[in-house]
Each structure stands twice: as structure tokens, then as C-alpha cells.
Amino acid sequence: MRRSPFSHSPKKLSIDNLSSACAQVKDRASTQGVDALTTPPRKRDAAATRARILEAAQRAFSETGYSHTGIREIAGMAGTSSTLLLRYFGSKAGLFEAALTAAMPIDAVFAQPRETIGRSLAEALLDPANAVRPPLMIALAAGDPEAATIAAKVFESQTVAPVAKWLGGADGRARSLEMAMLATGLVSYLRQLPLRPPSPDEREHIVAWFAGAIQAIVDQTER
After folding, report:
1. Which of 89, 172, 205, 222 could anchor a disulfide with 167, C-beta 3.0 to 4.6 Å?
2. What is the pLDDT of residues 53-67, one digit of tens each?
3. CA-closest candidate to residue 181, choices 148, 139, 149
């Protein structure tokens, strides 16, 4: 009598057989590029993600402006999702405020010797390797009322007020504004306007002029 194909006895399942089968499946998955399915997900580094988002936002807001920059665009530049970006910063306006604040490291200015602050600031602003973004972010935000209000608030709290206190005197705020106007004008001219960059000799002349102008403001006694 012919045996039915279903009449044979199944192989007995053992721990050894199960382990061998699992190993074979994992090997096949690895060769097919799906090994990540068997690997636990890595924990997100919140600080690093936040820093990447801020850096991307500073670049975007200083190059294309507030009105022409979208959340998805910034998230893509940072290698993250717009959902996560909004979880960190709440809104595009919140991101702009955080990015502009982070781009104004005023403590770095105060760390310089007071008697040579003019030269130090001039060298920093004219160095192409330095990403001096606040003046461009502020200028390109002028067309949006909400962004302009944020820019004015951040500029006052992160630059004008601290520098005025550092300068001292009843005219400290006026002198702080003078320094801000000089720095903003220099950066905008050199980095935003499509003009020929200065030659090495011209650059040194500009550094000397700017350094002298800033140092004179810092050194002057109360008027």
C-alpha cells in the first residue's frame, strides 16, 4: 500500500535544532541587509540632535532668510524629522529665537583682553573660517513682523545690554549700539553683498580701521 505523504512522523524539535535554525535565519537576514531588524535601536543623543538642528537653522536663516525657510528643510539639513524638531523647539519662531541666541556667544567677547578687544573682534569678523551669522539672520528676518520682533529682543538681551554693562557708564548703551552698528555693517558688507572681496592689503587696512574704531569706543571715558 502506498503511504500518504502526510503519514510520516515529524522530526522531533530540540533546543539544538531551534538554535541552528535561528542562526541560519540571522545569517540570511544579514546577507540581505536587514540585520538591523535583530539589533536593538540606539538611544537618541538629545544634546547632539539639538545642536545639529540649531546649526542647520543658523545656516538656513542666514542664507535664505526666515520667510523662505521651512521646518522640513531645516529638519532635512539636520538629518532628523520635522516632528522631532517641533518637539524640541515648539514652532518655527521658537527655533529662530533659539538659533539666534545660540549664534551670539557674547562670553567669547568678554574673554578677550579689554585693551586689545578692537583687534580681536576685527580679526574674528574678517576671518572667512568664522561663521558670523547673527547680522545676516537679523537682516533677512526684517520682512517678517514676528521674526523681526524676536530678532530685536534677542539682539538687545544677548548683545546690546551685556556689552553696555561691560562698558559701564551712563552712556554704556549708546556706546554698545555704536559697536553693534560697526560690526553689523562690516559683516553685511563683506558677507551679504555680492561685491569683490578685499585683497590682502585691503583686508589689513580694514582690520586696522575697524580695530581702531572699536577700541576708541571701548577706551573712551563717559561723555
Report:
1. 172
2. 999 999 999 999 999
3. 139
